[in-house]
Amino acid sequence: MRTDDLGARFAQYWVRVYTSRLPLDDAADRRNEIRSDLWEHRIDAIQAGRSRLRHNLDVIERVLSGIPADLSWRRGIQQSHRRLDTGDPMTTQQTIPRSTAALIAVASLGIVAPFPFLALLGTGLKAQERLWILGSVALAAILAGGLALRLRTRRPVLSTLLLAVGAFAPSSAWFWLPPVYLVTAAIIIVAVFTARNEPIVHATGT
Amino acid sequence: MRRKKGALLPLEIDILVAASQARTSGDGWIHGFRLAKAMSGDGGRLTAHGTLYKALGRLSAAGLLDDRWEDPDAALAEGRPRRRLYQINGNGLAALARARAEAAASAGATTPRIAPT
Questions:
Q1: Which residue of A has its CA nearest to B42?
Q2: What range does the domain containing A112 cover?
């Protein structure tokens, strides 16, 4: 039995993403359960004589259509552990504003960012000048992404905004390519929903 | 829209039905993929990972399903990952019976009555 199929690898990557920085027991349970499911699914595909391509597509479809539930489950786990840590109920109203603010900022950036580049690229710039602009965009994206990863734990909101800037940089240069926007949107969704607003595990004995 | 307290979603009813069938036909312990397979019927689409396992967690937390991880040695002997097993309990069977009764009552309420001739 091979569990290194593309679909299984994608599923296992995704489960690592959305269980990252969750309490160890919850994360391990979910990862092990998905690993078992993928194994059983593969056995079932072999027994049913389904092609590897068809099986991989089935797995990817199951992963993608479950993403909203995965993210909602993650938030539920985070909230229940915050309640345990602080003794205070963390209501939905308390958790929404940060994510909403980040989403609004990101959406605004996405609408605004392409226009300067549209203007620049449409004004008869020389090829070398365009190259400099695109190079600067790429460098800015790399710097923003690197800084965001460094700040991920200490400054989750700022980190999310930087990731959004980095993700939008290619969209501003290749604004005519829908796949670029889709990747950008995917990065932003993951960045927003995996941002940790509060520490989950507190040091003890200090 | 919030659902009524204690009300089951269609997916949760499907899970409880499949779990109750497993209980009738065997020892009752069934893993997530087998549940998804049972709910999908022949050749139907399998429930998404996230949707399925979130619903299973909800039903366990509500006390309608019991769950346990199987013995690691059993999985090792068969060379596969360990399964998390679920079993419908008395509360789950009662909740399923209530859901079925409510569905039957609402179906009866919407069916046009024919006057006797």
A1: A48
A2: 97-206
Nearest CA distance, A197 vs chain B (angstrom): 22
Query: In this structure, is residue A16 part of a structural domain?
Result: no
How confident is residue A116, by pLDDT bands cut at 50, 70 and 90?
A: low
Q: Which range (A61-75, A144-158, B27-41, B103-117) has the least confidence?
A: B103-117
Predicted-complex ipTM score: 0.87
Query: Using a CB-CB distance cutoff of 8 angstroms, which residues of chain B are in contact with residue A64?
Result: 48
DSSP character for B88? E
Handedness of CA A85, A188, A73, B23 (dihedral sign): negative
The number of folded domains in chain A is 1
Q: What is the Cα–Cα distance from B29 to B27, expressed in whole angstroms?
A: 6
**Residue A172 near residue A137 (C-beta atoms within 8 A):** yes
- Which position has the higher pLDDT, A88 or B30? B30
In a domain, residue A202? The reply is yes
